[in-house]
User: What shape does this take?
Amino acid sequence: MSFDVAAIRAEFPILSRQVNGKPLIYLDTAASAQKPRAVIEAMVSAMENTYSNVHRGLHTLANETTELFEAARKTIADFIHAQPGEVVFTKGATEAINLVASGLGADLKPGDEILLTGMEHHANIVPWHFLRERQGVVLKFVPVLDDGQLDLEAIPALITSRTRVVAFTHMSNVLGTVNPVRQITDMAHAAGALVLVDGCQAVAHLQVDVTALDVDFYVFSAHKLYGPTGIGVLYGKAERLAALRPYQGGGEMIGSVSLDAITYADPPHRFEAGTPAIIEAIGFGAAVNWLRGQDRAAIARHEDSLYQRAREGLAGQNWLRVIGEAPGKGAILSFTMEGAHAHDVAQILDRYGVAVRAGTHCAEPLMTRFGVTSSARASFGLYNTADEVDAFVDSLIKTHAFFA
Ligand code: PMP
Assistant: This one.
C-alpha cells in the first residue's frame, strides 16, 4: 500500500472549500477530524435504503439495520483487537468515562484513591471529581515534566494499597505526548488497581491493541477518527463489563422488567439504554473500515513529517513558545506567541484560511502547570500537506507581525 496524500484529500469533500477567499488549511483535527466520502455515503445509504430502529424488529428493514449496526461493532472490535461483546457504544469518550466512573464509583469508599495525570482532558478529570465531591474519594495526579512527559518515576509512590483506578490519556490532546500504556498498566495491576485509558487522540494516530496493552477500559470518540459525532466506544474487558453496574436504565438494556424486579441484558447491551445512535454507528464502522484500508504506518510517518516541517519552519522564531516536546510525540503543535492572546492568533490565522484551535483545550490543570491561561494548537491529520504546513508557518509569521 502506498500513501498518496492527493488521492486521500480527494476523498474529503470539505477540503476543496475556501475560507475567507483562501483555500481551507484545516489544522484542527485533534478537536475533530473531517469526514471522507466513504463515511458520508455509508450514513446516507443507511438512511435512504435500510433505515429502521434496531434489535426489536421482526421486519426486513429492522433486521438489515441491526445487521449493519452490529457489523459496525464487530469492525470496531477487530480494529482494537477486542471481542464485539467488549465494545459498548456510547455518545463519545466523555460518556464512556462517565459510565465507568459512575459504575465503579458505587463501590468506592471514602479514602479510596484514583490516580490521574496532570495532562488529562476534563473528560477524564471531572467524572472522578464527582466521586471526590460525593463520596470522599481521593484524587492524585502524576506530575508532568517540563518537556511534556509524565514523571513515570513518581508513579510507584503515588500508587498505594488504596488505589482503585488509574486513569490516564494514551496521547495528550495538548502536548502530543504518547504515554507508555503497558508500563503504567502493569504498575497499576501490580497494586490491584483497574486501568482506564483515554484513547481519544491515540486511536487516530497509533495502531491500538487493547489486548496487548492489557487495559481494563479504553475509550474513544468516532469524530476524531474521521467518523461522525454523537458516537464513541467504551471497550471493557469482558469480565470487567460483567462486573460493572449499569449506567442508564431503559429499553434495550434489560433482560426482563416486572413491577417489582428487573434483570439486565448481557454486556454490551446492558450499557446501551434506549435507541442508540444507529446511523452514527454505521458511519463509525465505515470510518474504521476506511482507515483500515490505508497504510497506517505510512500515515504516521506522514503526520510526523508535517509536524517536523512546522517545527523546522518556525525554528529561530524567538516569540514562539512550544508546549510539549516529548520524544516520539504525536503531530500536535501547541504554542503561545509573545505579546498576543491565543484567541487573537487563531482569529488572524483564520483570515489566511488556516483553522487552528485556541483556548484551554479542556485541560485547565495542564495550562496551569505550564503557566499559561491558553494556547493555540495546530494539529495535523492524514490529509494535510507539506504545502499547507508552509502556508501555516508563513501565516503565523505574518500574524506575529501584527503584534510586533
Ligand atoms: N480526551 C481527549 C484526550 C480528547 O482530546 C477529547 C476531545 N477533545 C476528549 C477526551 C473528549 O472527547 P468527546 O468530546 O468526543 O467526548
Q: What stands out?
A: Residues 357 and 377 are 5 Å apart (CA to CA). The mean pLDDT is 97. Residues 92-94, 121, 123, 169, 173, 198, 200-201, 221, 232, 362 surround 4'-deoxy-4'-aminopyridoxal-5'-phosphate (CB under 6 Å). The domain at 40-292 is CATH 3.40.640.10 (Aspartate Aminotransferase; domain 2).
